[in-house]
User: Fold this.
Amino acid sequence: MKPVYGHLDLLILASLTDDELHGYALIERLREKSDGLFALAEGTLYPALHRLEREGWLKSRWEGKAPRRRRVYRVTAAGHKQLAAERHAWKSFAKGVAGVLG
Amino acid sequence: MSGRDPRLRAYLEELAARLDGTTRDNRRALSEIGAHLDDIAAAERAAGCGAEEAAARAIARVGSVDAVAGRFAAEVETVWPLRIGLRLGRVVLTWLFAMGLAGFLAEPIAWLVGRDFFVGDERFVAVTPARCLQLMKLHRAMPTCNAALMEDHFGELVQFGLVIAVAAALALWAFHAVVQRLDPLRGQARLDAWTARIGAALFLALALSSLARALRSIAADPQNGGGRHLVEGIVALVVAVAWGVASLRRQTRARAALTT
Assistant:
């Protein structure tokens, strides 16, 4: 589902609010919570995670040892603020669309 | 990496060649995507899939190399001038080696066909008296100025060829060591498909141009120096074929990884 890319930041930040997850677990959570609606080429998640980390909204660390080593991500304080702002913007947008659609 | 399915390894190698980030960023990306592929493949095998099918499904879910590399290029800071520089560096050094080798090969070939085949065009060059004197001093066994000039030119062709070939071989060795350090998969620094493709096309163009010049020159007069171009053309053709085969093999491996 292509439009997911426009909201990927919001979806990633929201999925990581409570837990520290690695990419595969994050995809599984997205799939589970969206009932399989959000399908994306899973490898394209990582550039977004790296960018969000550069923005200061995520922090990451290696967990485990090779070959089971995984990079896990968590939301920072700045990320929580960003998530609140994006959530607010999304709700306003959804309300507007709902109003138009009736 | 050692226990990873060969199709997944081929996918990661293809992706490694396409990432334009810093070496550190690329290593991290490949490590994460490799772990992701392993996790999907393990889940698929646990669900009853065979190893081949599990690897194919993992690759299908992660996405094509084009899609993933394109997303990294769009979202992450890239250092593509460095990557392009490295690829061109390899092509240029190989070109220097090939041309140096072509010059050096004139020596053994000249035993069979004579030195005129390489430097025969010097027969028609006008030489000033001062230069003539100098050449005759350098090559006392030569009966005429132009014979001394040909001898002189042939020596330069072989000696410069040897020096250039050895220097380029050493530079390629040093280059290989640097690329190996930068290789995000920490493996053997290998010729990536893009470099092989670009290199094969350039060397083919060089080979065709040299062979055409050689044929024109030899058709006009076999002892007219056309041999230089002929040997350059043959050496360039050998490199073009070798790189073309390397490119096709890597493409085939990458396609097999995506379609099995």
User: Anything to note?
Assistant: Chain A touches chain B through 18 residues (CB under 8 Å).
